[in-house]
Amino acid sequence: MSLLPDSIRARTTIAVTALSLLFLSMIGASLDFLALDRGEAAVYQEAQRAATNWVGTFKPGSTPLPAGEGRVNLLQLVDSHGHVELASPAAARLRPLGTAQPPPDNRIEDQVVCPRHGRCLMVTAVRLPPLETKEIWHGVPHFVYAGMVQPPLLASHLLEWLTAGGVLLLTGLIAWGNWWVGGRTLRTVEGIRSTMAEITASDLSLRVPEPHGHNEFANLACTANQTLDRLEEAVRQQSRFASTTSHELRTPLTGLRTRLEEAMMYPGDVDPRQAIQDSLLVTRRLEMIVDDLLVLARLRAGDPAAHEPLDLGDLVEDEVTAMAGGPPVDMRVARGLIVRGSRIQLVRLIGNLLANARRHAESRIEVTAGRDDEYAVITVTDDGDGIAPADRERVFERFVRLESGRRREPGGSGLGLAISRDIALAHDGTLRVEDSPYGARFALRLPLIPAAPHRPLSLGTSPAGGDSDPSADAATSG
C-alpha cells in the first residue's frame, strides 16, 4: 500500500517540494559555510595586521604600548612562560589571550579561545622574528596576541537559523507555486472528466472545453472532441441502421403474415401451392437479409479471415462465367494480378458488383481487370440509368436502394454494396463510383503483391448464360 496520495497534483507537489528542499538545503549549507569562513578570515586578517603593525614599532630599548586598530582592541606581548609584559588598555587586566606559541617556521597561528566565563575570543598569535627576540629580549621567545571578541554572527547560530528559514520559505513558495500551477494545468483534465461524466448514450452532443494554444492538454481536448464526434455519428448511424433494419424485416414479415392469415381465413379463395411459394420467397428474402447482416457485422467487427495469394483476374473470369441470365458481358482481364486476400470475401465482392450491374444494365455489361501502379483495378460498367453524383456515396450505405433499383428488382437485401465496400476496406483497398460516359461504373482497387509479373489482357465476350474463353490472350490498344 503506497503512502503517497492518489492525486497526480499532490504527488507532483510532494516530489517537487522534496527535491527543492534537498537542493536549497545544499545551497544554503554551502552559502552558510562560505559566509562563516569568509567572516573568520576577515577577523583573523584584521588581527594579524594589527599584530604586525605593533611588532613593527618594536626597537631595542623602546617597546611602545599598543593602541589597537579597528575592531581589534585586545593586544598582548607574552613571553614563552606565559607572562604578559605589555598589553593594550582593554587587555591589561586579562590573562594571556591565548595559549598558542607558533614555531619559528610558521610564525602565525589563529585560534578561538573560549574562557569559562565570558564570550569567546578570536585570537591571532604572531611569533616575533629572531632578530627582535635576540636584540630586545636576549633570545627569549616572545609572542604577540591580537584578538577581539567573537562577532555575534560567528559566535551564535544566527546565520544557520536565517539560512534554514530562507530555505523553508523558498521551499514553501515553490510548493505553493507548483500546487497552483498544477491546479491550473489539470483544470483542463478535470473539465474533460466532468464533461465526459455528464455524457450519456441518449445525449452525445456535449463537448469538452478546448483550451487555447497547442500544448498537450489542448491536443487531448481536441482528440476527445473528435472521438465524441465519431461516437455520436456512430450511434446515430447505429440508430438509423436499427430503424431501417426493423423496417426492412417488418415489411416482408407483415406480408408473410397477411398472406398466411388470408390462406387460413379464406381457404377456398387461396391456392395453397401459390401461398406456399409466396411464403418461401419471403422467407428466402428474410434469410438473405439476415445472412447479409451477419456478414456485415463480421466485417465491421474486424473478424480476421484467412488471406492467401490470389489471381484477381481468375476470380473475375470465374464469376463472369458463372453468372447466369442478363445481358452479355464484355470482359478484358489482365493476367498476373496477384493480391492477398480472402477468396470467399473477394468472390462475394465481385459477385455483388456483377449482380448490381445485371440489375441495372439495358443491353450490355463491361468488366475490366488491370493494374494501376501498385494496385489491381477492377471496373464493372453497365449501360443503365447511371448514378447521380449526389448518390455515389449514398449507394454504399446499408439498405439504400435507388428508385431505379427498386423498380427493376424490389426483392434485394439492400446490403450488397455496403458489404462490398467493407470487404474492399478489409483488404486495404477502395471501392467507389467513377465517372462513365454511360451507365454506372464501379471501380475496385486492391494492393498488388510486390513483384507480380505483368502479362497481356485476356479478351472475351460472355453472352448471358454462355461460355467465354478466358485463356485467349490478345493485344489491346488503348
UniProtKB/TrEMBL annotation:
Residues 183-236 form the HAMP domain. It is an enzyme of class 2 (transferase). CDD domains: HATPase, HisKA. Residues 462-478 have a biased composition (Low complexity). GO terms for cellular component: plasma membrane. Residues 454-478 are annotated as: Disordered. Keywords: Kinase, Membrane, Phosphoprotein, Transferase, Transmembrane, Transmembrane helix, Two-component regulatory system. InterPro entries: HAMP_dom, HATPase_C_sf, HATPase_dom, His_kinase_dom, HisK_dim/P_dom, HisK_dim/P_sf, Sig_transdc_His_kin-like_C, TCS_sensor_his_kinase. Pfam families: HATPase_c, HisKA. The keyword Phosphoprotein applies. The chain crosses the membrane at residues 12-31. This is histidine kinase. It comes from Sphaerisporangium rubeum. The lineage of its organism: Bacteria, Bacillati, Actinomycetota, Actinomycetes, Streptosporangiales.
